[in-house]
Amino acid sequence: MNAFTNRLITSRLELIPATVALLRAKIDCGEPFFRLLGVEPVDDCPPVDTADALPFFLEQMQRIPKMERWLAWYWIFPGKRREESILVGNGGFKGPPDSDGVVEIGYYVRPTHRRRGYATEAVRCLVEHAFSCTGVKVVVAETQGDNAASLRLLENVGFVLTGEGSELGLLRFALAR
Description:
alpha+beta; Aminopeptidase; about 30% helix
């Protein structure tokens, strides 16, 4: 078990919220990041599609420490011993709910851990977490229209297609409280 007090627990995973220390270490993506999380180091860190968000998340977290629940979460498959724990993915929100009570979620699973249900489990947990917070009415997500795994995940969690996304080729989904 990790020492993080604000973690979320699912049947198979621990979801660890990003902290200033974790974000700083992840930007450098060296041994300290993995040591802080208590997992085995991996080569695909950070994934290319999320690396640009890290400095933004760090700046937000430094300005507003309560942002912890509204940014990145690291998904850990705990081993029997700490050094056997594995980072399977990450995901979270793009920030706190807007004035309409909407938050946007995103997610990533390391290629070696796909098709095992981890993303569905973690996204479901994060959605439940969001809805447990005052003011959240809707969780939205965007994905490529040809990403069958992501489309299936959103359907399995209960999201409904609402239309085109914010960029060409993206579809937007929503799940109301």
